[in-house]
Every structure is written in structure tokens, then in C-alpha cells.
Amino acid sequence: MEEPVLWALEGPVAVATLNRPQALNAMNADLLTELGSLLDRAEANPGIRVVVINAAGEKAFCVGADLKSRASEDGAGVTDDPLGVLVTQVFGKMQSLAKPVLAAVHGYCLGGGLELALAADLRIAAENTQFGFPEAGIGSMPGAGGTQRATRLLGPARTKELMFTGERIGAAEAERIGLVNRVVPAAALLAETLGLASAIARKAPLSLRQIKASVNRAMDVDLQAGLAYEAACHQVLRFSEDRKEGIRAFAEKREPRWMGR
Ligand code: CO8
Q: 90: CA distance to ligand 1 center in Å?
């Protein structure tokens, strides 16, 4: 059987490819479990500096929960939702990973697929991407972090409009409202994303880690608490070997050699 997520290394960039194109990369337990363990591998490997998540097949990045496996669930009397717990864990792992995670999206990016993209740090979209939250149309709601992460990124009114109506928006509109960082031609999606990922991977890994943690914290706490957290993150860098190396390399007009400490 095909792996539900493929994995490749492009220098310091790890590329995870959702690989259920016959189901438009809908997420089932196997796909989520595999994605979670690949994220663990990325976290543990100091040679990996950035993670890219993309998807196989021309039609879709991901259309959300696998509705066929959901259909076989009998909810009567069941209070917990194993797939819901799993998806929360895996998306949480993406968000807290000590390395930048870039989502390269194309085609349909719907429901839980959009929630997956929202858990990444940056989103690069092919021109043919269609974003939307169809959940209210099937008697559900975004339950994989979407109501929280989209609201933080887009504000409550735009988020509610997208979720109330299920209306799909294209890549240009997604860029206009700040849902994606960049829009690129579909044929160039992976190359452009890898280019950006490689540029980020040349920066000091400890800096990336502390920046990510500090910006993430900004969404959860008041300004005073956020500033205190930023100061603590900065303090970690002040006496790091990489900061000394960065300053030395600048003086010597050469590329720094990062040690990650
Ligand atoms: N799950 C499983 N299979 C799917 C899904 C899905 N979500 N969506 C499409 N497929 C399958 C189709 O059944 C079809 O398979 P087959 O050829 O065997 O019948 C194949 O993919 C191609 O799909 P279509 O023929 O329908 O292709 P179209 O181009 O006509 O339409 C659409 C594409 C618009 C994407 C349409 O398939 C659609 O509306 N799909 C449902 C999308 C949706 O409602 N997603 C939201 C799901 S709910 C959710 O994501 C909440 C997440 C909460 C977290 C839960 C834990 C994971």
C-alpha cells in the first residue's frame, strides 16, 4: 500500500507530501499519524532546518476530514473523538515545532485541509487554489483549530463569513485578506516554496526557533506578558555560540556556520 505521507530531504529542508490523491488527500487516522511521526523526526534531526508540507495530485492540497471513514462512525453515546484528538495533537505539533513549517497549497484546500494550512507558519498558494470551510453545509463546524487560528489571522468577521457561508475564495482573494503569504503559478509551487524554505534555512536555527515561539506567544497573551516572553527568548540568543559566530562572520565578510547552540 502507498504511504499516506511521503518524505524527502532537500538539503536542510524536509518535504512531507500528503499522498492520498485518489481521495483528494482527505485526512484519515493513518495520514495524520504518519504526518505526526514525520514532524517528530524533523524536530529530532538538527540537520533539518525547515519543513515544507505539500500534497500529491493535481486537484487538491487536502479536502479535510475523510468523510468516508467519518461516515462509518457511530456517535451514539460516544463522547470522545479519536480523530479529533489526533488532529489536534498533530496540528499542535506543527505549530509548536521548533522550526518553521511552510504549507505549499494548490487546488482544493477545504475544511480540515485549510485548518492544516493554518497550523503552518507560512502559506504559499498556487494560483489555482480554492479555499473554503464547507463544514456548516454538512452539519459540522471547523473543529481542528480553524475557528481559533483563522480568527487570529483574519479577524472574527472574515472568519465568520467564510465559515457561515462555506463560500470558496481563490488565491488572489486569500492573499488580499492575509490568508496566504504568496501566490505563485501552479507549475512553480514547489520550486518557489523550496526557494523560500532554503533562504530561511540559511538563517540561524536558534533565532528561527525563538522568533517562532515569540510570535506565537504574541497571539495568546497581553502586550506586557508578550514583551517579557520576547525578552526571555532574546536572552537565550544573546550568549549563544551562533550569535558570536554571526557577528564574527559579519566582520570577516563570510557566510556564518551555524551550530544551533
Ligand atoms: N473525504 C473522502 N473522500 C473525499 C472527500 C472527503 N472529504 N472529498 C472528496 N473525496 C473523494 C470523492 O468521494 C471522490 O472519490 P470517488 O471517485 O471514489 O467517488 C474523489 O475524492 C474526487 O471527488 P469528487 O468526484 O467529488 O471531485 P469534484 O471535483 O467533483 O469535487 C470537492 C471536489 C468539491 C472537494 C468535493 O469532493 C467535496 O465537496 N468534498 C467534500 C469536502 C468537505 O466537505 N470537506 C470538509 C470535511 S469536514 C472537515 O474537514 C472538518 C475537519 C475536522 C477535523 C476532523 C479530523 C480529521
A: 21
Q: Is the pTM of this model over 0.90?
A: yes
Q: Which three cell numbers stand for residue 136?
A: 456548516
Please tell me the predicted confidence (pLDDT) of residue 69: 81
Summarize pLDDT for 82-139 with one digit per residue, the tens.
Answer: 899 999 999 999 999 999 999 999 999 999 999 999 999 999 999 999 999 999 999 9
* Ligand 1 contacts CB of residue 26 (under 6 A): yes
Told to judge if 135 belongs to the known catalytic residues of this protein, a careful annotator would answer yes
Classify residue 250 by burial, with Cβ atoms within 10 Å: 0-12, 13-18, 19+: exposed
Q: Which of 5, 20, 24, 66 to mutate to test the pocket of ligand 1 (most atoms within 8 A of CB)?
A: 24
252 an active-site residue? no
Query: How many other CB atoms sit within 10 Å of the CB of residue 82?
Result: 10
Q: DSSP assignment of 52-88, as one string? A: EEEESSSSEEE-SB-HHHHHT---TT----HHHHHHH
pLDDT band, very low/low/confident/very high, at 2 (cuts 50, 70, 90): confident
Distance 167 CA to ligand 1 centre (A): 16
